[in-house]
Amino acid sequence: MASLTQMERELLVERTHTGLEAARKRGRVGGRKRTMTDSKLAAAKRLLADDVPPKDVSMDLGISIPTLYTAGFQHLSEGNQIATGTFGGVSHPPNSLIRASQFQCFR
User: Per-residue pLDDT tens for 55-79?
Assistant: First the structure.
């Protein structure tokens, strides 16, 4: 019984590969369409260079924040901010990373 199941599985895989090859020859490409087009990527770079928050950039472009980070903007994580001064009663030197857990409202 197991050998029959294994043979059916191998036939299924073989037919799937044959179908995918035929689709590629016809110019079809599988997968989802990209939400982050070249124009959206350029707009995101422009907006982020103008110090627009990532949340606002994602809303303006109609994409999610994770999509923005996946496109190559990981350094903009809102959980970590480069800042100086006093946050939550704790003094931080220049260019120190401030984590959300250090703010009073998150304790």
Answer: 999 999 999 988 888 887 765 554 4
Q: Which two tokens stand for residue 53?
A: 């928050």
Please state the domain extents for the chain.
1-29, 37-74, 77-107
How do the residues of the chain divide into helix, strand and coil, expressed in percent and rounded to 5?
Answer: 55, 15, 30
What's the pTM? 0.46
Query: Across the chain, how many H-helices and E-strands are there?
Result: 4, 2
For the record, the structure tokens of 12 come out as: 């299924």
Alpha-carbon distances, residue 64 vs 23, 35, 40, 55, 94 (angstroms): 31, 10, 12, 8, 30
CA distance 94 to 53: 20
71 by DSSP, 3-state: which? coil
